[in-house]
Design a protein that fits this description.
β1 and β2 form a beta hairpin. The chain is globular. The protein is built from no helices and three strands. The protein is mainly β. The termini are close together. A three-stranded antiparallel beta sheet has the order 2-1-3, with no helix packed on it. It is 0% helix and 18% strand.
Length: 55
């Protein structure tokens, strides 16, 4: 499972953990997040702006 980071604020979406607060269950792949996904911390960056930071 991979991790993706917002280049503005550093929020990390970890596929293994998901994001319970946002309603994304553990194991949900980044590619399967809604197309309208924006960073839940800063709301500045869109899904395509996130940078893969590893497994």
């Amino acid at each position: 499972m991979a991790r993706y980071e917002c280049p503005d604020c550093g929020y990390v979406y970890d596929e293994a953990s998901g994001d319970d607060h946002e309603g994304y269950p553990p194991g949900l792949k980044f590619r399967d997040l809604p197309e309208e996904f924006v960073c839940p911390d800063c709301a500045v960056r869109y899904k395509e702006d996130f940078v893969r930071i590893g497994e």
